[in-house]
Amino acid sequence: MTEPTSPLQIADFRLYWLSRLTATLATVGMVVIIGYQLYDVARGQYGMQITEAAFLLGLLGLAQFVPLAIFTPVAGVVADRFDRRTVAATAMSLDLTVALTLAITTYSGLVSLPLLFLLAALHGTARVFIGPALSAVVPNIVPAPLIPRAMAMSSMAWQTGAIGGPALAGLLYGLGHAMPYWISSALLVLGILALLAVRKLPPPDGNRDVHPIRQVIDGFHYVWNERFLLGCVTLDLFAVLLGGATALLPVFARDILHVGPEGLGIMRAAPAIGAVVVSLWLSARPIAHNVGAKMLWGVAAYGAATILFGISRNFALSLAVLALVGAADMVSVFIRSTLIQLNTPDNVRGRVSAISGLAISASNELGEMQSGLAAGLLGATGAVVFGGAGAIMIVVLWAWLFPELRNARTFAPHYRQRETEG
Predict the structure, then answer these.
(1) Can you list the residues of the chain whose pLDDT is less than 70?
(2) What tens digit of pLDDT does each residue of 381-397 get?
(3) Contact 165/28 with Cβ under 8 angstroms?
(4) Is residue 422 one of the residues assigned to a domain?
(5) How many domains, in total, are found in the chain?
(6) Are 43 and 186 a contacting pair, CB within 8 Å?
(7) What is the dihedral angle through the alpha carbons of 176, 164, 71, 363, rounded to the nearest 10 degrees?
(8) Residue 187 in 3-state DSSP?
(9) Is there a contact between 127 and 27 (Cβ–Cβ < 8 Å)?
């Protein structure tokens, strides 16, 4: 049998790609509308000031993060002990429940702030199990030489969903407030069916012989001792924690740029457009040399573009800068995700992916809380500019703390730097 030269020649990868695309379209669009609904309800029904409502957006991020912090160790062990496609499909079913609940309550006029916070927390719970399981599927269905291209294509599926999801949800919300949630429900059903059509993936040998608590400890121990991976994960954690402006986009859409929910959907899609362009390039010509330095420069560019977005008052310029934010971030995402998959043994891959996912989620959700709190103190513009500058400072600090990052030349496993005692 001829060896495949592209991941798309593999039927299981095509099903995986479709599942990731449809699930991302559904969930990212759903989360955007949850944020807008919460901000709109707080401003309209509760009569809150802009700073007060913006702070609630930060708390919404915290509501999604708390389940991630609690369940991440469990999610990693589950992904290493059971069929990873079944784990991800089950968690996606929880997201389906969230979408249907939002559709019914929105249509019935029963949406409230407590309900939105509760459903956001349930979405966070689903996501913590989806992430490690889906991330660990790719090396099980794609030959090792094709993994860099498969990771780029997987990221492209996510980013394409992140483009279409917010834009579609914003337009549908204008037609009927419950419409985005009905469409999200249908897309999640399709995603679940596609994932379950992938061949069964038996868990790695030996994991059922190890106590789950021991497995949790081993996963954290592995990441801690991989200096290169530790530097990559923590760089993303702290840079995006400070530099993320996503939580404040409803503020810019409603009260600064005055473009409403339709504009919000386009703004949420703009970073993903930039990321998809880079993903297309990387799927054809993956980064192979000077990977560490390119990751650092990518994060620095992310911070600089965030600053420009904060001070922009022109909608077209804001969209262009947000696209640059996504393009720069995609470079970091590609390098980090490829390193994790190529430098991690299969029997610990689920746990390492869970830890990486926790760092990403911490940076996103806690970053939203940080942004909301900073907006309460500095205003939305001040919070975004402060965060972008902070991301650049993190790059400088991490280049000094982790010389492994700036000195890394390729993805090859022999570049892994283990800490030694003494």
Answers:
(1) 1, 203-221, 223, 226, 240-244, 339-372, 411-422
(2) 888 888 889 889 988 99
(3) yes
(4) no
(5) 1
(6) no
(7) -110
(8) helix
(9) yes
